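Support request from a user on the community tier.

User writes: "When I paste my structure tokens into the form, the page sometimes reloads and wipes my input. The last time it worked, I copied everything first. Here is what I submitted, just in case something in the input itself triggers the reload:"
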């Protein structure tokens, strides 16, 4: 009977210790999640501010550059008539 009581006592102590350790781990995990969320939000804000100050500059495509070159050449030879929306 004493052995069984000792076993139950040891089992209960083990469960209490594991509950305490799990609580510590869960608290630590929550802290990490909060810290990560704050850091990510700060990074997004910084990135948005950077984009507002320095907007992205897009490169023209090869096709667009070729069309502009053709337009310039036609304009030089006076064969190009720009579209007039009032007609």
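"...and here is what came back when it finally went through:"
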């Amino acid at each position: 009977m004493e052995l069984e009581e000792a076993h139950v006592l040891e089992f209960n102590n083990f469960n209490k210790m594991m509950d305490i350790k799990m609580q510590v781990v869960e608290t630590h995990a929550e802290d990490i999640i909060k810290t990560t969320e704050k850091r990510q939000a700060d990074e997004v804000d910084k990135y948005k501010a950077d984009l507002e100050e320095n907007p992205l500059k897009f490169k023209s495509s090869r096709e667009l550059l070729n069309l502009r070159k053709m337009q310039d050449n036609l304009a030089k030879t006076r064969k190009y008539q720009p579209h007039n929306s009032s007609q």
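Agent notes: The reload is a front-end session timeout and is unrelated to the input. The chain is about 75% helix and 0% strand. Residues 2-53 form the longest helix (52 residues). Escalated to web team.
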